[in-house]
Amino acid sequence: MSQKENKTTNQTSCGSGNCTCDKQDGFDQSMNKKTGRRQMLQKLTGGLLAGAGLVNSACSVTATDNKKENAQLKWEEFFKGNYRLMTADEKKETVNRLQRLYELNHGKRIDISTKSPVKDVLYGYAFNISKCRGYMDCVNACVKENNQDRDSQMQYIRIHEMKNGHFNFEESDDDFYHEVPAAGHFYLGTQCYHCENPPCVDVCPVGATWKEKDGIVVIDYDWCIGCRYCMAACPYDGRRFNWSTPEVPEEEVNKKQHYLGNRLRKKGVTEKCTFCIQRSREGKNPACVEACPTGARIFGNLLDPDSEIRWVLDNKKVFRLKEDLGTEPKFWYFMD
């Protein structure tokens, strides 16, 4: 066969559809084709789902479609960015995914807010030791409001019972089960103090925690790697760790949530008080303040000279715990 005939034969063979020498496989084509991040994830997810057998069949089409959608949403959630770096559209997308995932898994809707800090607001807190009676209404309200794990009895707030004249946490009783107030004792509550100079933020190796403009120290639960450096750095024992997946009965889930606040968490991440960010950024008091029957808890805008908390700071003898550390906690104590 002549060189010319050989060339013609090869060209015919390649063009017949039986030869793949000049073709790319589907994966290479999808990688070389210009496409957005979301579209690429959808393509990759589709391939994984097909490999796992989650493809449409003649029966149970709806159930299978739900499985496919659930898996794809989880896949996209896994690759999302840090909340601080998200655009407004990306925040909207991730909230829509989380809401849809909850609906697929529970058949009910939740409302997740991404409301930003309000301008000219810096939140602060004051605790009146004279008025606290140790009733624990604040603790119970906090647990319910913030979807805290019921199995481990996680609590952001701790009420310390101390003997009169003995201001000592090492001698205090944090698990008292008797009628209150007990004679010869006083009560003092602790939680996250939302420091102006939070050491927990400085030690986080992945930027999963930071201080917002309104002073609230927050956590991006999906970026937390569970190293617990923040827990070790906090001088106020303000953080908690999920050793197991938090359990909240469906009928008790607070469906009014904030992305950086009381949305449902997962195993292996830290969490803490956020001044009920889902409430405070809507102009409401935190649940603990609202639930306190004696008015021992005061919350408000430190930048508002007419606010109740400013009146307390201006007219009462106040103090903060471990002020020598320079953390500048926005949580004060005082007595009548």
TrEMBL record:
InterPro entries: 4Fe4S_Fe-S-bd (IPR017896), 4Fe4S_Fe_S_CS (IPR017900), ET_IronSulfur_Cluster-Binding (IPR050954). The keyword Ligase does not apply. Keywords: 4Fe-4S, Iron, Iron-sulfur, Metal-binding. The keyword Iron-sulfur applies. CDD domains: PsrB. Residues 215-244 form the 4Fe-4S ferredoxin-type domain. Pfam families: Fer4_11. SUPFAM superfamilies: 4Fe-4S ferredoxins (SSF54862). Gene3D superfamilies: 3.30.70.20. This is 4Fe-4S dicluster domain-containing protein.
